[in-house]
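Reproducibility note. Readers wishing to regenerate the assembly model reported in the main text can use the exact inputs given here. Chain order matters: entities are listed in the order in which they were concatenated for prediction.
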Amino acid sequence: MASKSSQSRSRSKGRVTLSDVASMAGVSSMTVSRALNDPERVSEQVRSRVREAVEALGYIPNRAARSLAGQRSYSIAVVIPSVSNAVFSNVIKGIYDVCSARGYEILMGNTYYSVQQESSLIAKFLTHHPDGLIVTGLNMADSARALLQGAGIPVVQLMEVGEAEPIDLNVGISHRDAGAAMARYMLDRGYRRIGVLGAQMDYRAQRRIQGFVNVLADAGRYDEARIVTTSEPSTVHLGGQLLGDLLSAAPDTDAVFCINDDLAYGVIYECQRRHIRIPQQLAVAGFNDLEASACINPSLTSVSTPLYEMGRVAAQMLMRRLDGETIEQPVVDLGFELRARESA
Amino acid sequence: MASKSSQSRSRSKGRVTLSDVASMAGVSSMTVSRALNDPERVSEQVRSRVREAVEALGYIPNRAARSLAGQRSYSIAVVIPSVSNAVFSNVIKGIYDVCSARGYEILMGNTYYSVQQESSLIAKFLTHHPDGLIVTGLNMADSARALLQGAGIPVVQLMEVGEAEPIDLNVGISHRDAGAAMARYMLDRGYRRIGVLGAQMDYRAQRRIQGFVNVLADAGRYDEARIVTTSEPSTVHLGGQLLGDLLSAAPDTDAVFCINDDLAYGVIYECQRRHIRIPQQLAVAGFNDLEASACINPSLTSVSTPLYEMGRVAAQMLMRRLDGETIEQPVVDLGFELRARESA
DNA sequence: AGTTGTTATTTTAGCGCTAACATTTCTGTT
DNA sequence: AACAGAAATGTTAGCGCTAAAATAACAACT
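Running the prediction on these inputs yields the following structure tokens for the assembly.
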């Protein structure tokens, strides 16, 4: 049988296969398969003969064949806006640590914040028949939603909770509540002419602003002129620019909530250049509480979000589902913490 | 044939397959395969009938079957130290953009800076029979090197060039030269008691320091007491700490080269707290020139490295190799640029 | 020795797709 | 009308593995 692979019509590249190992070890290929994937079900004797043969031949199993025969891929597809964003790279690390420990591969795809890209990415990933899927956020194209519902695999929606009925599982925080908490904090601190800076306005960012603005409005402190947003990707440099825009439009602003820490760093740097004292003349707050926020001068008041944890928990839920467990609580709100520091 | 899939002994989950589409469209399954993967070779008529059938049935192709039959996986394995590091997330983005545009999947694995993890990751990835492999750096375990050499697929070693004979293809910069360039710049600027701060001392970081120190030594300005390194992961906070260590050991230090920008930010913040004026009392330089480096106060002198570009070029070389092109120049040095700014 | 139950191994039959070859259908040419 | 050559489609035979059923081997009881 093994010799057949050298015949003219064969397409094989002469790779070492299971049956090569089998004939060397003097057992059937099924036994070799078991010896490798379920060693307890094979006698010690056979197990070691197989091990020797594998080493002698340099056998490398073929995942494609395994997936096809076993009807599962041992892979998890992850659909996020962008790898190069510090927020998501932390989330991915959480997912990765759990999945790789369990022998699952990660297929990662970037939507670049486009709902359309997201749909086509999901469609593409389904061709891999992943065992599970992790997507970002609760909002998605109807077509994508339908695909996921019909796929018959566990799906986790990540980053936010509470804004819509999840497709299946859901892990995140309430961005609306987080925005609101920050607004309340600022009002409590006595700030009254409060601005908001936003960039890369994805759904989560929008909801943070909504939550923030609603509280301001309830307190009679909402002023449209102080809301400055752009759809450009957010960068430190952009933070400085947006501050300039805000101060031109409303020079008497006494506090500013930045939709993420990067913008806030830019604001702090720009204030240093303009000799605006923080927080005396202008209070500044950020979002996500990246590592540098505790170190910058002045240290940055921010909302700490459990990024790594979200990834970890999402992956764990998926794993439990794949193990056949029923998940009693399909929606997990991991909460946030407002870290009050010098800047506000 | 198609009806066979509903027989008792079948393991299929009742998925829609190529031959289901074929019988609906009234053609053979091979024709459907062609209509989907090589549309030019099929008449417009058949093509649209197939398209309709695919939509009507909700057909999702099976990559595992495709890989197995076609003897290629349309995937590229990428082995890097850590996704959650800004340096590598930029590199990955470059790889991702090229690969996904060409229909290739990325399998990403983190070594967490361990040579052992790297080896086992490579072994694991080879079971996917990826069409190509991208690994970080020129140093790796002999076993890993052997695996790669024997795998018969194109391999790109990424991030650094010039330190060893590459296995196959190689894209990066000379970290040694970059370190040396920074040392020369600092000496030219008149600094004489120059320190070095390093963390997460991977091979690249070590070589940057070697290049830097060699130049100092040649100029008679090397002082071991001013080299402060740790194997801890580098963070902004750690930068401040290491500066403290350096100044305790050598208080008269007049300039400091940080092995990456994160450490440099930490140094700048710590100097602000200690009221050390930059660059008058202490000059500071970083490495990688992250986006924030141009915005921080004082703006940070750093070595700009083409991170995204490295990823892009590596992936492109791989693609060209997979297209059967011969690559005339297997080693590509993308170079670096020293960005002189206020901090030094 | 005969029956039963348990464990270890082999046999059989695909998983869903595509390479390679074979055949048919459609041009255009003389 | 006859033919060659190109283009479109069909047929056959796996790719390398595992689920399920079948069998063999072994221990544990009557």
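We highlight two features of this model. Chain B touches chain A through 54 residues (CB under 8 Å). Residues 156 and 169 of chain B are 5 Å apart (CA to CA).
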